[in-house]
Specification:
By secondary structure, this protein is mostly beta strands. The protein has a domain of 100 residues: Deoxyuridine triphosphatase (dUTPase) (Deoxyuridine 5'-Triphosphate Nucleotidohydrolase, Chain A, Distorted Sandwich). 5% of the residues lie in helices and 35% in strands. The protein contains one helix and eleven strands, in the order ββββββαβββββ. The radius of gyration is 19 Å and the shape is globular.
């Protein structure tokens, strides 16, 4: 699938890191490094603008290495970029560690996955079909 992109960053377009990768790594596009203190959150620009086809979204997700090693994650994970959005792609990052973390210009801060989606229409009803699980919620299918 081809996706129109405007790249106003100082960096090359995102690339898949391996032939079977689902996500493209997004890079911070910064004038100066940003330091996130413990529990601090910040929007980080990428300099990228997309035009997604109807029926697709871009999901912004954490990078596993940053999350594991430094506690840096995407706060509204996954963040959704709708097909009709034309603004800059920004990443809402939060530092969940106790230590400050500095984001440098060009650092890979998140990954973007393009996903197909459907829109629904509601069908009002007085009942739902029965299932083995029924109304069992959190933890209902795990160990007791």
């Amino acid at each position: 699938m081809k996706v129109k992109v405007i790249n106003q960053s100082k960096h090359a377009l995102p690339e898949y890191q391996t032939p079977l990768s689902a996500g493209l790594d997004l890079r911070a596009n910064l004038e100066a490094p940003i330091t996130l203190g413990s529990l601090e959150r910040r929007l980080v620009g990428t300099g990228l603008y997309l035009e997604l086809p109807t029926g697709f979204e871009a999901q912004i997700r954490p990078r596993s290495g940053l999350a594991f090693k430094h506690g840096l994650t995407v706060l509204n994970s996954p963040g959704t970029i709708d097909a009709d959005y034309r603004g800059e792609i920004k990443v809402l990052l939060v530092n969940l560690s106790q230590d400050p973390f500095t984001i440098e210009d060009g650092e890979r801060v998140a990954q973007m996955v393009i996903a197909k989606h459907e829109q629904i229409t509601w069908e009002s009803s007085e009942s739902l079909s029965e299932t083995e699980r029924g109304a069992g919620g959190y933890g209902s299918t795990g160990k007791s």
